[in-house]
Amino acid sequence: MKKRTSLLPTQTQDLQEFIENSENTARDMKAAQAVLMINEGQNHAFIKRYTGFSRSRAHQLATDFLNGGIDAIKDKRKGPPKNLLTSEQRKELIQIIKDGPRKYGYGCDFWSSGMLSDYILRHFNVRYKSKKPIYILFKDAEFSYHLPGKIYRNRNQEMIDKWTVETEPILQQAFDEPDTIVLCEDEMILTSTTTTQKVWIPVNQYPKIEVANKRERRSFYGFINIKTGSIHAFKTEYQNMFQTVDILKRIRELYPSKKILLLWDNAGWHKGSEVVKFVEEDGNIKTHNFPPYAPELNPQEHVWKLGRSAVTHNIFIEKIDIAADKFVDFLNNTKCNYHLLGYGPNF
Fold first, then answer.
1. Which residues contact 44 (CB under 8 A, 6 or more apart)?
2. Long-range contacts of range 96-99, CB-CB < 8 Å, 24 or more positions apart?
3. What is the CATH number of domain 159-332?
4. Chain segment 187-209, per-residue pLDDT in tens
5. What is the C-alpha end-to-end distance of the chain, expressed in Å?
6. Which of 73, 147, 185, 265 yields a CA-CA distance of 20 to 30 A from 204?
């Protein structure tokens, strides 16, 4: 397809800004995209696939834009957006929310407030001035606002199910034995880069949090005793098999005469020759690996999140070791009621 027109840089910028303005309808944004594609010489099949406009309609939009600017390509079929939905429209929208966005042409499985606002504007010609009515619609549909969890592409659910079946009797036996402790272990890294989370603040106040320019890091080994809820956290410089052995020696000092069932992931340093040697020589430690790509099974993952939320979020970390020591101190003085496959402390 030959270019039908050649846009000036200012015209191209106007179209791009129009597309990025979330207040415009999806149809009008696609019209602007079609004009840009015509200008770039895209073939008509490509334009129709991504905008829905036929070859003749896309060229007409380009001509209209040249003659009349942005206003000339806006949809003239609807008047100004209304402010309210009818009761019937609300009922219809609640079912649409429950059906999910993919059924209605959106390329994802979860609604956002912006996505639902776009749908309401395009199909009901209603535009709200704030997000509150959108939130009420989600609430009426019995939806709540959460960050979605993450799942690894390489996750093998069949392997996880098999691991669950194999692990449950092991845990049952360990909980039946008074002299056996059950530890779930994991490592994490804390950097001096400031992390932030949402907080409630007075209206019209906009606090700023100082952030560090220098990036430093410290490693941590963490163990949660899922019989008692006690946490054992240790600050280290590195994560390797030698450091792992040193940490296991400190765990053995905490439980000098106990049998230890240790559940941890498949990190290379857990399988290093020095670690294998230490476990064999100890003779009273049994290790059991979590399945790959299933961090949500490990209760210690929740411990890290608790510690970061309480100690390191929204904090300027001037000296990494001071922050790391506070992090360790908080965890070592905290008990957590986290469970593994239904097994955990009773409090």
1. 1, 54, 55, 58
2. 97/137, 97/138, 97/141, 97/143, 98/141
3. 3.30.420.10
4. 988 876 655 555 555 665 655 55
5. 71
6. 147
Q: What is the Cα–Cα distance from 197 to 176, expressed in whole angstroms?
A: 41
Domain coordinates of the chain in residue numbers?
Answer: 9-73, 87-140, 159-332
| E strand intervals along the chain | 180-191, 217-225, 231-236, 259-264, 285-289
Which of 235 and 151 is assigned the larger pLDDT?
A: 235
Nearest 5 degrees, angle CA 96-CA 100-CA 102?
115
**Tens of pLDDT along 52-66?**
888 888 888 888 888
Integer Cα distance of 248 and 85 in angstroms? 63
**81: Cα separation from own chain's centroid:** 34
Helix 87-99 to helix 132-140 angle, to the nearest 10 degrees?
A: 70
The pLDDT value given to residue 62: 87
Q: Which of 216, 220, 233, 208 is nearest to 318 (CA)?
A: 216
- In this structure, the number of other CB atoms found within 10 A of the CB of residue 146 comes to 7
Cα torsion 10, 16, 20, 22 to 10°: value is 80
Paired tokens of 278: 């230490």
For residue 276, pLDDT over 90 is answered with yes
Q: Which pLDDT tens digit goes with each residue over 62-79?
A: 888 888 888 888 876 655
Strand, coil or helix: 232: strand
- What is the tens place of the pLDDT at every residue in 322-336? 888 888 888 899 888
**Which residues have C-beta within 8 Å of that of residue 125, sequence separation ≥ 6?**
78, 79, 81, 82
Helix (H) or strand (E) holding 304: helix 299-307
